[in-house]
Amino acid sequence: MTTPPPPPWREGPEPLFRDTLASVHGEGGSTRSWDARPRRAAAHPIDYLVAGLTCDQPMQASVRFVLSELDEVVLGRGASRSSSRAGRRLVVHVADPWMSSSHARLVRNEDRWLLEDGGSKNGSRVNGWPARQATLADGDLIELGCTFFVFRRKVPVVGECADLDLSASKSQLAELVTCSPALERQFEALARIARTDAAVLVTGETGTGKELVARAVHATSGLRGPFVAVNCGAIPEGLVESQLFGHRKGAFSGATADQLGLVRSADGGTLFLDEIGDLPLAAQAAVLRVLQEGEVLPVGGTRPAQVSVRVVAATHRDVDAMTVSGTFREDLLGRLAGFRATLPPLRERREDLGILLAVLLRKHAGADAEQVSFTPEAARELYRHRWPLNVRELDKCLAAALALAGDEPIGENHLGQALHRGRSPRPLSQDGPALDDEELRRREELIRLLTEHRGNITAVAAASGKARMQIQRWLKRYGIDPKTYRT
């Protein structure tokens, strides 16, 4: 069994309350004093299990089970997906004909959870490896029959966290649905903020779905005007103000007619400023005027035009650091960040893969989405891939796989070569060295460190406190190629 590394979880959104060091100005200068508001709520760790993708029913909603008050979880086949709690025992049934009626169970052992196969016909797998018994680590992928579960350990949560059945979710927007407690809290706040006129700033790596969230905010807002998306990084620097704010006829060479500009085109609706961190300083000042005064001055114009837009901005850059370096206006950031949402990369929200697949299948297959299925090998690869380009990469991968598969189940051969980079190695071949339990554990730890440090042997040696040469000897003995983990 290979154990994936614990992902670098963020603490989620800013807490509702925090201690603030304020400056109170009086005759004697400034006096530092603590804000008397309540202290922010402390995060507490929880374990939870997510029933995600079932290969022949990928449109089935995911379910999250919080394990805090449990000592045992029984997983088996049933007529439909259902669950019941009795004392400190949870029974989960899945409509998967490849599962046994009592397929496996999770048992608490002090502060850890053990997976025990119940003598099932098709066996159990952890991270793609057959396992009769395994101690579970954060992020482990459990495969029972054709159903995939993700186990999360000691995830920091602020406030209460309960079981979640997404088939009963009240959210009308698939883009604002998640099994991650931290992201769930952000999405709940976003849904409330969307019904106000507050500006929203969405941050996160490229491809994490920032525009999808912006469109969800617009759909929830009730605004009757259009949603206008602007890629600030794609506009030539000399044309930024003309394209954003419009121009008058004759304002410059080639200006043969008046143009409204993208900002005024969004009047009464939502203006989505994607990659706002790429906007030149001169244009930043003009955007600030739009936010402050609600007016636009076209290039070559003498009178500003009134405009009413809701602004949602997004960036993959660290705009706080940019304000310190002087490349992003601090006053503009203050106006844009009425509410901040941070989207984690896909590799950190592995438990949401089933949700995202259902959303994308509906997008690409429409009414035929219910007929789509996956082979277990393909599903395993989807979960094991690191998705360096995030949801955007998953979207393109799935669109191509649907086209290639036709009426067949989507198989591993339909997913493309990109998914074979950065995945965990398969178990050693039959003619490889026989490994005892200690060596198996060492191999798992090496795999975890290689994944965490992206194949950097020097960093792995430093993290494990071993010589670099010793790490190389182990890699050779265990048949591990560090190049597999480099991106």
Compile the SSE list and pairings:
Layout: E1 21-26, E2 29-34, E3 43-54, E4 63-66, E5 72-77, E6 82-86, E7 89-94, E8 104-109, E9 112-117, E10 124-126, E11 129-130, E12 133-135, E13 141-144, E14 147-158, E15 164-165, H1 181-193, E16 200-204, H2 210-221, E17 227-231, H3 240-245, H4 262-265, E18 270-274, H5 281-293, E19 295-296, E20 305-306, E21 310-315, H6 319-325, H7 330-336, E22 339-343, H8 353-365, H9 376-384, H10 390-405, H11 437-452, H12 457-464, H13 468-478
Parallel strand pairs: 5-7, 16-21, 16-22, 17-18, 18-21
Antiparallel strand pairs: 1-2, 3-4, 3-14, 4-15, 5-8, 6-7, 8-9, 9-12, 10-11, 10-13, 13-14, 19-20
What does this structure look like?
The protein contains 13 helices and 22 strands. By secondary structure, it is an alpha+beta fold. Among the domains are: 43-168, Sandwich (Tumour Suppressor Smad4); 181-343, P-loop containing nucleotide triphosphate hydrolases (Rossmann fold, 3-Layer(aba) Sandwich); 437-485. Strand 13 (141-144) and strand 14 (147-158) form a beta hairpin. Helix 5 crosses helix 7 (330-336) and helix 12 (457-464) crosses helix 13. The longest helix has 16 residues, at 390-405. The model is unreliable at 1-39 and 421-432 (pLDDT under 50).
CATH superfamily of the domain at 181-343: P-loop containing nucleotide triphosphate hydrolases
For the biggest β-sheet, the strand order reads: 11-10-13-14-3-4-15
Low-pLDDT runs of 5+ residues are 1-39, 421-432
Q: Helical segment tally?
A: 13
Q: Please, what is the average pLDDT?
A: 82
Looking at the structure, what is the overall shape?
elongated
CATH A-level architecture of the domain at 181-343: 3-Layer(aba) Sandwich
Q: Helix fraction?
A: 25-40%
Radius of gyration: 26 Å
Task: Indicate the CATH class of the domain at 181-343.
Answer: Alpha Beta
CATH topology of the domain at 181-343: Rossmann fold
Largest sheet: 7 strands, antiparallel
